[in-house]
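Crash report, auto-generated. Payload:
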Amino acid sequence: MDLEQIARSGQCFRMNKTEDGSYAIKAFGTELRILQDGSEFTFSCSEEEFESIWHNYFDLSTDYNKIKQSIDADDSYLLAAAEYGSGVRILNQDLWEMIITFMISQNNNIPRIKKSIEVMCDTLADGAFPSAEQIASGGIEKLSEMGLGYRDKYIIKMAQNTVNGEFDVEGLRHMDYKNAHRTLMSQYGIGKKVADCVCLFGLHHVDAFPVDVHIKKILEEHYPQGFPYERYKGYLGIMQQYMFYYDLKN
DNA sequence: CAACAGGCGGGAC
DNA sequence: GTCCCGCCTGTT
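Recovered output after restart:
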């Protein structure tokens, strides 16, 4: 596992490097500091909190080395991508936060996404990630002050639907990937790509394979005859992360 | 200053 | 179903 790689992999927007080289992560109503020294990690939390939150958050039960070894020996591109991003993990992040975060991410850039989220958190929830109630209660007027652009109307609708019970966020956890994806896509402002990101980072459906403009280009360039989806079935999302992160360096 | 950024909704067909 | 266009707004 590599914190630098995870922080730069574009799946979490509330993880920041601090002055002393450690990382600060805000999630699940708390803030964690982690210092990495090679393969040694120092967590700022209690043993109890580590077991209840962070062990799962960092997906520590998954054997990524084994997954890396399953890559086709003839696929030099994927091998290089996996080697380059071997410290990346598919995080288990808060479901609600992922829904709103990736709705914001559409047709947007990372600095602005982070800024919008930070302003939302500070303005609506005293630094924590705002609940559906907190977002809905401010109305569109409040939300429009956060640099969300046209996405504000998607977000207020999602928050309102969640508050009035029209949309059941927790119910997504009881669905398989296909059903969760379809249910998410039925919501205003959520399309195929955002639904896949929520499935992958919020529901840990590791088979989800979000295709954005970068992945689309990669597939066209390196897999003109088609990506070997069948070979990596069950953990396609990890391959997607390797390719996405590898592409970011350029 | 035009173009772009981890897409999506809406209308045309 | 696919294709195409317009879209908020901060940066470069």
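Post-recovery validation: Chain A has a mean pLDDT of 97.
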